[in-house]
Amino acid sequence: MIVVTGGAGFIGANFVLSWLAQSDEAVLNYDKLTYAGNLNNLASLRDDARHIFVQGDINDGDKLAALLAEHRPRAILHFAAESHVDRSIHGPAAFVTTNVNGTFSLLEAARNYWQTLSAIEKTEFRFLHVSTDEVYGSLSATDPAFCETTPYAPNSPYSATKAASDHLVRAYHHTYGLPVLTTNCSNNYGPYHFPEKLIPLIITNARAGKDLPVYGDGQQIRDWLYVTDHCAAIRRVLEEGKPGETYNVGGWNEQTNLSVVHTLCDLLDELQPKHSGSYRNQIKHITDRPGHDKRYAIDARKIEKELGWKPAETFATGLRKTVEWYLANDTWVSQVQSGDYMKWVDLQYNSKEQA
Question: Which domains are delineated in the chain?
Answer without folding.
Answer: 2-191+224-253+292-313 (3.40.50.720)
